[in-house]
């Protein structure tokens, strides 16, 4: 998935460098969380693989809502930990240099928004769909993503 990695890196660079985060220091943390999400998508063989993990843990309705064109169902930090495993969340926290709670709650907040952005037509497309979603993230900046 080299194309995805390349586009994600460009998107994350644009998002992390965005001055429109509106928070003090929040842009950096959100950029780190977006980087973690990109890594999770890559590790699971794509967006579909990551969402299958949620379905396997009984959270398929939530994951499906993020892809659909309707309202995103929320997910908690505890549910993120349930899906990924406590060891994985701890590893991600160490990787990002953030507290475990900040990673689980941050992923719970951002993951539905990112999936929603990557699936604008309500379905998981191929690389073209991912590319279009990442382009949308790059154009909207971090403030556009966080405002949803």
Written description of the protein model:
The protein is mainly alpha-helical. It has a domain at 2-7 and 27-58 and 74-109. Helices cover 74% and strands 0% of the residues. It has eight helices and no strands. The protein is globular, with a radius of gyration of 14 Å. 34% of the residues are buried. The model is unreliable at 1-26 (pLDDT under 50).
Q: Quick recap of the structure?
A:
The protein is mainly alpha-helical. It contains eight helices and no strands. Helix 2 crosses helix 7 (100-118), helix 3 runs antiparallel to helix 4 and helix 7 packs across helix 8 (127-146).
Write the layout of secondary structure elements.
Elements: H1 2-16, H2 26-43, H3 47-56, H4 60-67, H5 77-84, H6 86-96, H7 100-118, H8 127-146
Summary tags:
single chain, 148 residues, mainly alpha, 0% strand
- Overall mean pLDDT stands at 76
Q: Radius of gyration, rounded?
A: 14 Å
Please state roughly what percent of the residues sit in beta strands, choosing from under 5%, 5-15%, 15-25%, 25-35%, 35-45% or over 45%.
under 5%
**Strand count, sense and closure of the main sheet?**
none
The number of strands is 0
Termini, distance in Å?
A: 28 Å
Helix content: over 70%
- The string of secondary-structure elements, in order, is HHHHHHHH
Structural class: mainly alpha
Low-confidence stretches: 1-26
Tell me the overall shape.
globular
Number of helices: 8
